[in-house]
Description:
There is one protein chain. The chain has helices at 14-21, 29-38, 42-62, 105-125, 152-156, 161-174, 192-204, 209-222, 276-279, 295-302, 322-325, and strands spanning 99-100, 133-139, 142-149, 177-184, 228-232, 238-242. The chain is of the alpha/beta class. Among the domains are: 99-186, K homology (KH) domain (GMP Synthetase, Chain A, domain 3, 2-Layer Sandwich); 189-265, Ribosomal protein S3 C-terminal domain. Strands 1-2-3-4 form a 4-stranded mixed β-sheet. It has a two-stranded antiparallel sheet with strand order 5-6. Helix 7 runs antiparallel to helix 8 (209-222). The longest helix is centred in the first third of the chain and has 21 residues, at 42-62. The two termini are 29 Å apart.
Amino acid sequence: MQVQAITKNVRMSAQKMREVVRQIQGLSALRAQAVLAVVPRKSARWVAKTLKSAIANAENNNGAKVENLRVLSAVAGTASTLKRMTIGLRVGVNRDWRSKWYAGKKEFGKLLSEDRSIRDILKKKLESASVPRILIERAATRCRVTILTARPGVVIGRKGAEIDKLKEELSKMTGKEIYVDILEIKTPELDAQLVAENIALQLERRVSFRRAMKKAIQTTMDFGAEGIKVRCAGRRTSTTALPRPAPFTASWGSSVGFAKAKPSRKPDRPRRPSTRANHQRNPADPHFTMPLMPARVKYRKMHRGSRAGMASRGNTVAFGEYGLQSL
Length: 327
């Protein structure tokens, strides 16, 4: 006899649910309820609710006793998601295409990959020129690249030397005639992509993430923005919105930017030389030296008594075994 219960459309990621679901696999129903009662996670409440529903189905529909029930399997899958603040939803309403050309099925993939390569090359070469968007238009054997930048002088170079280099490199890569146009962004403080890249640049320079976010918000609001929302994720996660978050409608003239910071890492510590050769030598040798005990083993042995009963990694409950021992 197998009885199941399903909970749908839970506003929580499947990854968080799986962390709790793994803890009750193969346990008895009463034991699983006891484990979920002491797990300090919001997702545990949803799992406990689903388990309670499955137990009620077994008791009412099949006349089973809760003492004889066991969790055979528990699965947490991904549900339907809502797409918000994407470019595709706004194309044709208040946004235009970034690439304008038509091609058949045989050439479509090649041209799409070529557009991506062009954008990657220009982004890498014009990293310090504040380039939020690159527009591409194609017609037969000609290709027109429009670069939107907040610092056109950096892109143009002295007497247009930089543009000539870009044209030559792109022509060599694509084998087509390349035209390069430059459009200046008058207020870069109101461009979402440039704001995101500015915050990422400050994070790479080891600036406090809260300070970088607050400074970007204050600057954007001073230039007349109606609202801004900034989210910094990773080792430090924080979200700030001021004072009017943009509604999720296609007609709203809002923009979204994303940038990834790559801070430099600290150099690795020099490793201790290996003492494996000493284990193979004869201890009677006068030059034999006993290898030192690794620090992690020494710490574990010193605190073996005080560390007893602490939670361990793996499939066991990682929220403190003391909760289960006291039941």
